[in-house]
UniProtKB/TrEMBL annotation:
Domain Nal1 C-terminal: 98-188
Name by which UniProt lists this protein: Nal1 C-terminal domain-containing protein
Matching SUPFAM superfamilies: Trypsin-like serine proteases
InterPro entries, alphabetized: Nal1_C (IPR057904), Peptidase_S1_PA (IPR009003), Peptidase_S1_PA_chymotrypsin (IPR043504)
Length: 219
């Protein structure tokens, strides 16, 4: 960001509850669903800063090309975070546009480190249902640029993996560039594990935020 601060990047629906969270609201980790006996006590990871547009309405009434699912939060203590994606690899600072056939990997909350391949770009607008009970919000939001990913041998992502950074890799599995964020999924009988993953491209997200990716931080 132009202010020189470090922010966390995730989905709007994860940290901003579909644009319903007020600016500077604390973002806690672990999340409420992950708190349990003898677990890590929740702490303030950061503070909600900005959510990109997620306009709901029927196709034709809104400009779905402007819809994406992304938000950022200001990191509370940069000494306590790292740019490492789990223990798998560091965040690449390069970005690339996703294409069919691209080999990809991600590290997520539920399925951890997985490998897969971009199998298609959806030719029609993709509608994703969102529900935020605390704000009585329930709507289908349409997206114009969505890519489908299948995992290698099993699901690429599952519920709870939203916001995972997807990176392209070379033939030896070495990360090359960031290409998108996991934001949804669904059943797919042709996919390993019977589930497909849906991804929004990262380039438009970073351009809208005026942000770049950070690598080499506390690795």
């Amino acid at each position: 960001m132009t202010d020189g601060l470090i922010y966390g990047l995730t989905n709007n629906h994860v940290s901003a509850l579909c644009s319903h969270v007020q600016i500077d609201t604390p973002i806690l980790a672990p999340g409420v669903m992950d708190v349990g006996p003898n677990g890590v006590a929740p702490f303030t990871l950061g503070f909600h800063t900005r959510a990109l547009e997620m306009h709901h309405g029927s196709v034709g009434n809104i400009d779905i090309a402007r819809n994406t699912d992304a938000a950022i939060f200001r990191i509370n203590d940069v000494s306590q975070v790292t740019s490492m994606q789990g223990g798998a690899y560091d965040t690449p600072i390069q970005i690339a546009d996703p294409v069919e056939g691209m080999r990809v990997e991600k590290v997520g909350r539920t399925t951890r480190h997985t490998k897969g391949q971009i199998v298609s770009k959806q030719l029609r607008p993709a509608g994703v249902g969102y529900q935020v009970q605390s704000h009585s919000f329930n709507s289908t939001i349409w997206f114009g640029s969505v890519f489908t990913i299948h995992g290698h041998g099993s699901e690429f992502s599952l519920n709870g993996d939203s916001g995972s950074l997807v990176v392209s890799v070379d033939d030896h599995g070495r990360p090359l560039a960031a290409v998108g964020l996991i934001f949804a999924g669904g059943s797919d009988s042709s996919a390993p594990g019977g589930a497909k993953s849906l991804m929004v491209p990262i380039r438009p997200i970073l351009q809208a935020l005026g942000a770049t990716l950070v690598g080499g931080h506390n690795v």
